[in-house]
Amino acid sequence: MADSALSAWQAWLQRAVLTGDATGAEAAVRGGNRLTAGERVAIYANGYRLRLLECLEREYPLLRRLAGPTAFGLFARGYLEAHPSRSWTLHSFGAEFADYLANARPANGDALSQLPAALARLERAQAEVARAPAPARPSTDAGAPVLMEVLGSTLSRLVCPPTVRLLRLPFDCSALLALDPATQALPLPILSDWPVAVARKDWQVRCHPLPLPVFEWLVALPASGQVPPREEPVATWLPTGLASGIVHPLGPMA
Which residues contact 165 (CB under 8 A, 6 or more apart)? Predict the structure, then answer.
């Protein structure tokens, strides 16, 4: 078979699997007594879709548990129709799930209808933080604690590293995150303004509730870094932020 013909058949099969439309299958796939050509292609298309749905279930276990398998299945299938996978990595597939759920929320929905999108945003942030590249280690004198270097007189710059996501959610999910979704009953989160940093430290991902002034300072941090402020409550919080990996020293100001 010529390369051009092979490429055409490969493109057709990809389209059939992605869309579920097996029109023209008889010309590309041999049917049999038990299965038609279209039914044979459908096996691959259905398997592909089930794999993507399984990926969403694994990435959003809290949402799946709270919503239940039926409601979550509706969310996931609707998302798959609206956002078919376009990437070589499955990690990218669920990136827009939270936005999809927010846009699909009924216009006259109550406060609780915000919960699916809020939970999806939180769980996606956890997945992204787990895979993010680690920040470079700051250059400090041998034996000098980083905390003292930063909070002392060296005027180190502070940034939020790639291993941090800042969220402001309409539900306090602290109690929910303390439970195992696979084995424990999950309470509904409390409706409350919840600024939170999702951060990775020593390869462990944790969620850190933040005072609103601290959250706003972190959101405004420039990529080039900023000298540690002396104003409260940020100054008092900085040791916690450094210890938990929410802020990271870049080095002295130029």
Answer: 125, 128, 129, 197, 198, 199
Q: List the end-to-end C-alpha distance of the chain, in Å, as a whole number.
A: 63
User: What's the rounded Cα separation, in Å, for the pair 229 and 235?
Assistant: 6
The candidate with the shortest Cα–Cα distance to 249, out of 117, 156, 128, is 156
Q: Look at 30-39, 51-60, 167-176 and tell me which has the smallest mean pLDDT.
A: 30-39
Tokens (6 digits) for 77? 């299938």
The 3-state secondary structure of the chain reads CCHHHHHHHHHHHHHHHHHCCCCCHHHHCCCCCCCCHHHHHHHHHHHHHHHHHHHHHHHCHHHHHHHCHHHHHHHHHHHHHHCCCCCCCHHHHHHHHHHHHHHHCCCCCCHHHHHHHHHHHHHHHHHHHHHCCCCCCCCCCCCCCHHHHHHCCCCEEEECCCCEEEEEEEEECHHHHCCCCCCCCCCCCEEEEEEEEEEEECCEEEEEECCHHHHHHHHHCCCCCECCCCCCCHHHHHHHHHHHCCCEEEEECC
Q: What is the mean pLDDT of residues 206-230?
A: 92
Residue for token digits 């097996």?
A: 22
Contact 248, 160 (CB under 8 A): yes
Q: Where are the domains of the chain?
A: 60-252
Q: What is the pLDDT of residue 197?
A: 98
Looking at residue 217, its pLDDT comes to 96
CA distance 77 to 34: 29
Q: Residues near 215 by Cβ (< 8 Å), separated by ≥ 6?
A: 166, 168, 195, 197
Say yes or no to pLDDT of 216 above 50. yes
